[in-house]
Amino acid sequence: MTNPITQSELAEVLEQIRQGFKAVNDSLSQLEKGQVEMKAELNGIEKRLTNVESSVQKIPDLSEKVGELKNWKQIGVIVITALISSIFTGTIGGFIGWILRGMKS
Fold this sequence. Notes:
105 residues, 1 helix, rod-shaped
């Protein structure tokens, strides 16, 4: 013979089922909150990525400008070095010649 289910046992089982559903609903709510936070974080990352992409696109132009500046600096250094060496070459060359001639005036 099977035992008939009493009203109190049925109420207890239903209460356990309700608590189980409540726990599942709470877990789903937490998951949804986490998903919203992750979406917000992803949006922030996408904005930063857009900024990085625009910066990366500027690199060729900047490297070209730096290259041009480097060329002008090299040209300036060469011109200044040439001027200085031409000034000192005459003076130093004359001094070395004076020493080679036996320091005679």
